[in-house]
Each structure stands twice: as structure tokens, then as C-alpha cells.
Write a structure and sequence with these properties.
Blueprint lengths: L4 E6 L3 H13 L3 E7 L3 H6 L7 E3 L2 H5 L6 E4 L7 H9 L3 E5 L6 H14 L3 E4 L6 H11 L6 E9 L20 H4 L3 H17 L3 E9 L10 E8 L4 E7 L9 E7 L2 E6 L9 E6 L4 E3 L8 H15 L7 H14 L19
Parallel strand pairs: 1-2, 1-4, 2-3, 4-5, 5-6, 7-10
Antiparallel strand pairs: 7-11, 8-9, 9-10, 11-12, 12-13, 13-14
Amino acid sequence: MGDTIGWGVVGAGWVARDYVGPGIAASANGRVVAACDLDAAALDAFLPDHDLERTTSLDALLARDDVDAVYVATPNDAHLGPVRAAAAAGKAVLCEKPVARTLAEAEALLGAAQAAGVPYGTAFDQRFHPAHVALRELIAGGALGTVTAVRIRYACWTGPDWSPDENPHDNWRADPERAGGGAFLDLAPHGLDLTQVLLGEPITDVAALLQRRVHDYAVDDGAALVGRTEGGALLNLSVAYNCPDTFPRRELEVVGTRARALALNTMGQTPGGTLTLTDDEGGAEAVPFDGAASPFRLQVEAFADALLRGEPFAWSPAHDLHTMRLLDAALGEPSARVPAPDAALPVSA
């Protein structure tokens, strides 16, 4: 293994091409040695200026002695197979969120890694955004007092023909068989995970409503979730595929008895954004953080550092499985439905 980690990237789509690959290439303790995808054009576009093996064979990637860890960046329905194969080959695994399409698949995936005894992590990059790290430290240090509420708005426009770069694109996120769900399964895990990471306590109670209102596809294009942590803090989480990208759509608010923190444009794949702390007397100050640091780079560096030290990744598979159980539980019980009134609602003049 040496003093750096050799990475194999499985799945050379948009996230891997624009964020994962560049993040590993820029990391202080890792390098990409191989990439695998069934799409030759996607492979050609992945780190085109780097010398690495590009292959359509997962077996070929896993057979390389210099592949120490595998980053799985495939569609949701193709997480389980590559993770099982990587674990069987003795490779450490960092797998994109959500862990899988369903709780049962997630249990099988995490069970395979555990049975093989390989290090495993789920790729929640927003744990590593410098603004969120700074906010977590403020909360842990008592700057906000007792946290009472977390509010997250995480939305985007993802239509049936969505493309990250206006080029022809396989929009598997709109396919229920491949994605397992829509905006809820894609975006809500970020808010659930980040809330638990920031507050340092698990969410124990959840309920959610899904929306299919704008886009003509078979998955939800919006969702609202409410939750409560073990200590009693409340979560209000809104996610959407039906929000124009020109609208404010990435907001994180944490309210405490001493101060309120507001992070704008920190949720997502890119660095930057702002973090403001307002105290209980109305005084506001900007919280400094490294606005240029990629959360993907920081994530792969943290995972590689744990491997090089021979230590577990900071967030255990049990933590990630709990988040999958929350997603499952949120939709597990139908909400009480109140029939519409017999008379029409009044209309303002």
C-alpha cells in the first residue's frame, strides 16, 4: 500500500467524472490507477489527461495489486454487485449514497463487506464540506446553546431529460427500477446524515410525504420529511427535483437557544457558500472556512488516511444502515388523510 492509496473507480459517469476523479487526483494521499465502466465514451472522458487503466471489466480492475480501494459511483441498482466483488477481492470500499435502492439491498451490501472484513464507507461528501465541519465544531462547543431545530432545503431541477452538461445523458435517476426512488431517495439521505453528523446524535423518529406534481416520470419529484433526534431536536427536511435552479434551493439552518446558524449554498457537490452565526441579541457574524476546498477531495483523503493508519473510517456501516432504516421507516406507515371539504375553499377577491 505504501504511503498513498491506489484507487479504482467503478462507474465513470457525471459524479465520478466531475468530482470523484478530480478529488482523488488532487488528494494528498491517493491516486487513481484504474477506472471501469461499460461505456467507452464515459471512460475516455474520465481524467483524460491521466495515465490509468480504462477497462470495461470489473474483474480486471479488481485483479490489480495496486488497487487498494474502490470507489463505487454506479447507479443505485448497480451498487450491490460491485461492492460484493470488491469485498471478495479484499479491496476497501467507498460507495456512493444511498447505500442501495432498498433496506434489504443495503443490509446485503453491508453484510458482504462485514463478512469479508474489508473497510467500508458510504460517500456522504457533505460531511466534509468545510462549512459543515465548522458548524459541527460550533455546535459541539456550545456556541448555539441547546439545538432545538434543523431546517434543510435541498432542491434542484431534474426533468426527464436532465443532463449535467447539456449533452446526451443517461438519466437513470428518473427510472424507478434503477434508482429505487426519486428526489426522496436521492436527496433526503444527505439531510438525514448531515443532521446526525452535525448534532452528534441519531435521529429516531421520522415521517415523510412524497410528491409527483411537475415531471412526467414514475418517481417522486419532491418530498417533505420531519424527524426528531434522540435528544429531542426537530428536523424539517424538504427535497425536490422540481425546483428551478435559479431559485434559492440549498439552505441549512440550525437553531439553538443561544444562536442560529445559516449555511447557504454549502449543500451540493461544489465548494464555497456562506455560513452566518446570529446570536440571541441579534448580532451576526460570518464564520470563516476554506471556501475552495472540495468536499470530495476531503472525503477521499479522510478515507485513505484511515486505511493508511489501519483505523476504521469515522462513520461506521452501522451508522449508514441506520440512515437507510430511517428512509424505510419514513415511508413505512401511511399518513392520516383528511378528506377534502364538501364546500369549495373561499377565494380572495
